[in-house]
Design brief:
GO terms for molecular function: unfolded protein binding. This is NudC domain-containing protein 2. This protein is mostly beta strands. The protein has a single domain (10-142), classed as Sandwich (Immunoglobulin-like), CATH 2.60.40. It is 12% helix and 34% strand. It has one helix and eight strands. Strands 1-2-3-8-7 form a five-stranded antiparallel β-sheet, with no helix packed on it. A three-stranded antiparallel β-sheet has the order 4-5-6, with no helix packed on it. A hairpin with a 3-residue loop joins β2 and β3 (29-35). It is elongated and about 50 Å long.
Length: 157
């Protein structure tokens, strides 16, 4: 049932007409998908994930991305892989249930409607996690959706 509440599509951050990255999130993590330039050997790519900062690039060149993260992450369970021409970063949220408006602070922030949709989906994921025998995939909210991170005392980490 949890699969029904998984992200349906990725958000795209485009700068200067070129896609910089795509991203999605769950109640526990944020995933970034960065397209890799063709012809560069895989062993030249690097990624450094810190609690509140990330750096991505090709060794010997200035970083492609070098930014502060929207919110802190758990570095011991965040990681990156190279898959089919894409660098995939999995950032484990330090504050489970917190709705991120963008992975990078101040870059590609979601519009209010998309942010509200994300918050509703994450709230349903929380309900699903707390009530495993029930299916919340068709549930809807009327009016404002509460914050999944802090609703009714918050999420136990």
């Amino acid at each position: 049932m949890a699969e029904k509440l998984a992200p349906e599509k990725r958000h795209s951050f485009v700068h200067g007409g070129k896609e910089v990255f795509e991203w999605d999130q769950t109640i526990e993590e944020v995933n970034l998908y960065i397209p890799l330039p063709p012809g560069v050997p895989k062993n030249l790519f690097y990624c450094k994930i810190q609690s509140s900062h990330m750096e991505v690039g090709i060794k010997g060149n200035p970083p492609y991305l070098n930014h502060k993260l929207q919110s802190p992450v758990k570095t011991d369970s965040s990681f990156w892989t190279l898959e089919d021409g894409t660098m995939h970063l999995t950032l484990q949220k330090r504050n489970k249930g917190l709705t991120w408006s963008s992975p990078i602070l101040g870059q590609g922030t979601l519009d209010p409607l998309a942010a509200d949709t994300e918050q509703k989906r994450l709230m349903l994921q929380r309900f699903q996690e707390e009530n495993p025998g029930f299916d919340f995939s068709q549930a809807q909210f009327n009016g404002n959706c509460p914050d999944p991170h802090s609703f009714m005392g918050g999420i136990s980490q």
